[in-house]
Amino acid sequence: MITLIGVVAATCTTISFVPQVIQIQKTRNVSGISLSMYGILTTGVGLWMLYGFLIRDMAVFFANLITFALAMAVITLTVKERLSLAKKVVHQV
Amino acid sequence: MITLIGVVAATCTTISFVPQVIQIQKTRNVSGISLSMYGILTTGVGLWMLYGFLIRDMAVFFANLITFALAMAVITLTVKERLSLAKKVVHQV
Q: Does the predicted interface ipTM exceed a cut of 0.90?
């Protein structure tokens, strides 16, 4: 039972970033998103990956690998959208 | 050394939501934030708290308690801002 709670917990925290990635791809709206948050988060998740690898815990490694990819997707999409918006502003000026 | 990596990883993933909370409080801009993401994340973090409590691992419990509070703050501020925006729209109509 305790293990099941851990598995559900890990699944939730890992897949939680999926709706954010989908929302950005659909709406292209990234204005309220904090890049500092995703920067610190990605660093932390990357270190969790390293930790999982070093202690040979593949569950920790792979769960964080997925979160790392999703958080990186949020960062990439946000930066891309902001650069594209900045370009539009420059063209308007 | 491995323990230190784990501690830095946990610190990063726990405090990463602080800049998002500060940004919302400063700018009141929540338009790009996915509430589905924070809903799933808060469920997962809540289950991690329960898991930490059940296996008597107070580090897991308290780290997730902080993340839980920060994610709840993002949800509360986002819902509050969206309700306030919706009210303004209703008044304009």
A: no
